Write the structure tokens for this entry.
Amino acid sequence: DQHYKMNAQTISYIDRTQKMNLMGNPIVESKNQGMSGQYIELQFTDSLLNQAIIEDEGYVYNYHRAKIKKLGDMQLYKDEMKGNHLQINMKNGNLQNVLIKGMAESLYYVVNDSLFLIGENSATGDTIRLNYIDNNLSKIRISGGARGIFTPEKNNSSIDSTLHYSSNSIDYQLKEQASYLKGDVKIKYQDTELIAGNVEVDWRTNYLYAFNDGNTLPQIYSNYQEPMYGEKLEFDLIKKQGVISLGETTFNESIFKAKKVYRNEPNIFHMKKGIYTTCDHDLPHYYFKSNKMK
């Protein structure tokens, strides 16, 4: 959509460079997109807008459509982005990518290949980069104090509760329906809280995989029970059950260590190749050992 309405206190255009500058509360709008800030620079190529730079109080929005029910009508949704500095790149009138720097914020609606709305995600960080294909969001990278909230659409998502997350950086691949969180990861889902070095989430299967990054062991807290630790954690977000490799947990002043450990009820543990002890040394002085424990 290359039909734009522009409003600003001062507008200048240099025909030789095809560059336009808008100053004084500028606003640029089209049918499906818009932007505003204190200063906007527009770069045209053969009369088509291919880049926009927004400085100070930058704001960008993009409309797209999705449906909630199979036989329902398509509805309009509005992705929004804010930050101190924004750079928008376009091709043939369509968004290619948006780079947000400085107090970056984004609100976007997750849509699958069948154009069903999966949920709403709000995220913040020092820097956010969003990539688009055919005006639909395809990839997001958040870095520097990344954090966000995912609210699922109850009709189309197996996730039934709001998910809070934070990490040093987050990569979300919408087409592959996968998320990658790196560095100081924290995830809260209902009454379950996960801490880990790195986390991968497969949204097709709703399985979460947490790893030790050398600084932080995966650990999970659930139902106000003692945490479970290990080198690797696999967790089913739907069944709310998980398996920890090289795991350790405590219960009633007892210590359990095992090659594999999982808890399918608040007070029931299943272990493979594990030991039970009340000695808190890394190498306990005494213990019971078994290939299987419950």
